[in-house]
Design brief:
Length: 244
């Protein structure tokens, strides 16, 4: 499976998130549920761990429950249920690892990898919470444009020592441009947001390179979607920091 397919899937998922933020809450919730299902289905395939269907269901259900509560929990603590779902999801991963009968020699790696999937799926609900917190799409658009630039730069097959600084600088500039066009956010703040988002995406790029090419289509798509889960909570808490 070609590694660039992960970047393409990440770009498509990001476009879905940004487009959904301009629609109703139901559309955003639907996008969150779909992306959680995609991540849950493919993450165990990317890691190559046993009990793929069971662990994938745990990952997907964590993301779905987190998205539902982020959409319907009264404010201002839209993510107050998230720690509970993350704890339950990680606990379920441990239970599955204890009762399954295959792959005992790699049980620790499987547990850590599946727990990371649970964390990423749950954190993705931050996109919904961010939109509900501000009631507008400016922050989502600024973060989305910065992430899009970083994703596109990350698809270039150059060394990390070149790609990482380039992506951070260009994402910061893209965040500034988006802020000037759609919000009254200070350009220095927008640049920091863009740089932080790019740094997160570049860390996932490094992880992907270290892990090698994905084994199949499901794994490639899941790895492309996974960084956006981490960005969801990041965008939400940056939003709260800037406003409060």
């Amino acid at each position: 499976m070609k590694s660039w397919s992960m970047g393409i899937s990440g770009v498509f998922a990001l476009i879905i998130i940004i487009a959904a933020s301009y629609a109703s809450l139901g559309v955003s919730l639907g996008a969150g549920i779909v992306l959680s299902a995609v991540l849950g289905t493919g993450w165990p395939h990317y890691l190559g761990i046993p009990a793929k269907k069971t662990l994938g269901s745990v990952i997907a259900l964590t993301g779905v429950c987190a998205a539902l509560t982020a959409a319907f929990t009264p404010g201002p603590g839209y993510l107050r249920w998230l720690p509970i779902f993350l704890a339950v999801g990680v606990g379920a991963v441990f239970v599955v690892q204890l009762i399954r009968g295959t792959g005992q020699s790699h049980r620790l790696e499987s547990t850590l990898g599946a727990s990371a999937g649970v964390l990423l799926a749950g954190l993705g609900s931050g996109w919904i919470a961010s939109h509900r917190f501000t009631g507008e799409t400016a922050m989502t658009l600024i973060a989305g444009v910065s992430a899009l630039v970083a994703l596109l730069i990350g698809m270039i097959r150059w060394p990390d020592r070149v790609i990482a600084p380039l992506a951070i600088v260009l994402a910061a500039l893209a965040g500034d441009l988006a802020a000037l066009l759609v919000s009254d956010l200070h350009i220095f703040q927008a640049a920091i947001i863009g740089a932080v988002i790019a740094a997160v995406l570049m860390s996932f790029r490094r992880l992907r390179i270290a892990a090698g090419r994905p084994r199949n289509v499901q794994g490639a798509i899941a790895m492309g979607v996974a960084p956006l889960g981490a960005l969801g909570a990041l965008v939400y808490f940056i939003d709260k920091l800037l406003i409060t």
